[in-house]
TrEMBL record:
Region (Disordered): 59-86
Membrane topology designation: Single-pass type II membrane protein
Name of one Pfam family that matches: PC-Esterase
Compartmental location: Golgi apparatus membrane
Name of this chain's protein: Trichome birefringence-like N-terminal domain-containing protein
PANTHER family linked to this entry: OS06G0235200 PROTEIN (PTHR32285:SF377), PROTEIN TRICHOME BIREFRINGENCE-LIKE 9-RELATED (PTHR32285)
């Protein structure tokens, strides 16, 4: 059962760190995680992480500026305008089924060839982050674009921009979490942009970690909120001598949590930042730390911290939403695929998916996925048949089978201009766009539409 922890000081004992956690670190160099999971432009200042960023209005593409160049955050869509609810409920122009089919388990299946072209590419979509624009950066192979996920025992329909936009009309959907949440949000924007132009109406001015788009012809809004651990955190700043994240388990990240009232649906996605060294605070005390031998403090397995934060977050979302008709989806852990040195060619060299059963999940991936599945299921059980709905986007297994879908060296334009032996940085964590991450949003569409 999910319980509320708002305004309550809770001390808990966390299990000792397990040996396998150290094994994971041997596979994923901290130096690369620092580069990929932190901004490459500047170290964030901890003080800046607990303030609201200043609003700046910009066009999403050249010539796509909002009508009012001084427009601030747009008002949320009118509540209940042209709709009855959020999760799988009928809007104008939609047909309501007389009976719901049994739920499909999209988590088990296989990747099969698909000749259909992607709905977008590196030039047709203006919201692809530079580091994920693999085609524009010269990736020579295109086979990774032509696979679809086929679940066992049921079908996962191809993404329909029209169907998603119909659902999104007069609604506000937000992606909240780390850079993989951003990756998924930008994927959705590109998929929808194949039918309707999104206008970027808000960004925070600090590396665009908080952004908002409006599809004006549908009065539909999509936002991305940077919150890599969902709770309040003072991020590490190694240039200033701060090596660890300071994580406050009893303080919610109000940069996104305070916006819940304006959001009709929230997609949460976190995980990789829990692998980074951290000091854990609860009730005004330090209750543990991860990878902190230099601090002479008790080592704490991050699995327990992750579970506690997911539990507290969903409990607080439940409390704040109350009896509102909303949907909360949680995307499970998306594995990395480092198979070589991070700064040389061949870090993630695969050109095809693994076959079903060819690549087993690692211990860390299994535990992170299990936590989300179990805690979300408990929240859904607690919500019962009420208007608030919880769902899991269980992508861990399907993502584990796609080592070919990462940017690798093509996180940079023309990475081998200096020769194949040149030192290059590789991204084997995030996903090329278009690419496998678009499947995450195929699952999202089926989840929210019933």
């Amino acid at each position: 059962m999910v319980t509320t922890h708002h305004h309550q000081t809770t001390h808990f004992s966390l299990p000792k760190k397990q040996f396998l956690t150290y094994a994971f670190y041997a596979l994923v160099p901290l130096a690369l995680l620092h580069y990929l999971l932190f901004s490459p432009l500047a170290e964030p200042k901890p003080a800046a992480l607990v303030r609201e960023a200043a609003a700046t209005v910009v066009p999403s593409q050249p010539g796509h500026a909002p009508a009012n160049a001084h427009e601030q955050l747009p008002p949320p869509p009118p509540p209940d305008q042209g709709r009855e609810g959020v999760l799988g409920e009928t809007q104008a122009g939609e047909v309501s089924a007389t009976a719901s089919p049994p739920p499909c388990d999209y988590s088990e299946g296989e990747w099969v060839p698909d000749a259909r072209p992607p709905l977008y590419n590196g030039t047709s979509c203006g919201t692809i982050k530079d580091g994920q624009n693999c085609m524009a950066h010269g990736r020579p192979d295109t086979g990774y674009l032509h696979w679809r996920w086929r679940p066992r025992g049921c079908d996962l329909p191809a993404f329909s921009p029209d169907a998603f936009l119909r659902w999104l009309r007069n609604r506000h959907l937000a992606f909240v979490g780390d850079s993989l949440a951003r990756n998924q949000g930008e994927s959705l924007l590109c998929l929808l942009a194949s039918r309707s132009r999104p206008d970027l109406v808000y960004r925070d001015g600090e590396e665009s970690k908080f952004r908002r788009w409006v599809f004006r012809d549908h009065n539909a809004t999509v936002s991305i909120f940077w919150s890599p651990l969902l709770v309040k955190v003072a991020e590490k700043a190694e240039l200033a001598g701060v090596r660890h994240n300071n994580v406050f388990l009893d303080a919610f990240d109000e940069r996104w949590m305070s916006q819940l009232g304006a959001l009709d649906a929230v997609v949460l996605s976190v995980g990789h930042w829990f692998l980074i060294p951290g000091i854990y605070h609860d009730g005004g005390e330090v209750v543990g730390c991860h990878d902190c031998a230099d601090l002479n403090r008790t080592e704490t397995a991050f699995f327990g911290v992750f579970k506690e934060i997911v539990h507290r977050t969903l409990a607080e979302v439940t409390r704040r939403y109350g009896n509102d008709r909303k949907v909360v989806a949680f995307t499970t852990f998306s594995p990395a695929h480092f198979e070589g040195d991070w700064d040389k060619a061949g870090a993630c060299p695969k050109k095809e998916p693994y076959k079903d059963g060819e690549k087993e999940l690692g211990y860390t991936e299994m535990e992170m996925r299990k936590t989300v599945v179990e805690v979300v299921a408990a929240a859904a059980s607690s919500a019962g048949a009420g208007p608030l709905r919880f769902a899991t986007l269980d992508v861990t297994k399907l993502a584990n089978l796609r080592p070919d879908g990462h940017p690798g060296p093509y996180m940079r334009n023309d990475p081998f201009a200096g020769g194949m032996d040149a030192r290059v940085q590789n991204d084997c964590v995030h996903w090329c766009m278009p690419g496998p991450i678009d499947t995450f949003n195929e699952m999202l569409l089926q989840t929210i539409s019933g």
